[in-house]
C-alpha cells in the first residue's frame, strides 16, 4: 500500500531515524562487548574474513597529551557536539522540500 504526500515523507523519516538508532545501539553494544571480553592486542577471529582487535586511539581529536583537558571535560564536550549534530540533523530533515 503506497502512502501519499506528507504521510509518505513522515514514514521515511521514522524509518531512517529507526535505522540510525538501531545502528547506534549495535555500535555501542559491540564496543561494550569488546571492552569486557577481548584482551588488549589479542586477535579474535570470527571467520576467515572478520577478526576483532581491542585497541585504543591515543591521539584522538582534543585528547592529545599536550592539551590540559580532563577526560570528563572531553566526554562532556563530545556529548555537546553530538547534541548539536542531532539538532542539525533534525532541523535539516524537517525542512520543507
Describe the structure.
With 97 residues, this protein is mainly alpha-helical. Helices cover 58% and strands 6% of the residues. The protein is built from 2 helices and 2 strands. A two-stranded antiparallel sheet has the order 1-2. A hairpin with a 5-residue loop joins strand 1 (43-45) and strand 2 (51-53).
The helix-strand sequence is HEEH
Number of strands: 2
Structural class: mainly alpha
The whole-angstrom Rg is 19 Å
Given the structure, what is the number of helices?
2
The biggest sheet amounts to: 2 strands, antiparallel
Mean pLDDT: 76
Anisotropy-based shape: flat
Strand proportion: 5-15%
Query: Taking strands numbered 1, 2, ... along the chain, how are they ordered across the largest sheet?
Result: 1-2
Please bin the fraction of helical residues: 55-70%
What's the N-to-C terminus distance? 23 Å
Low-confidence stretches: none
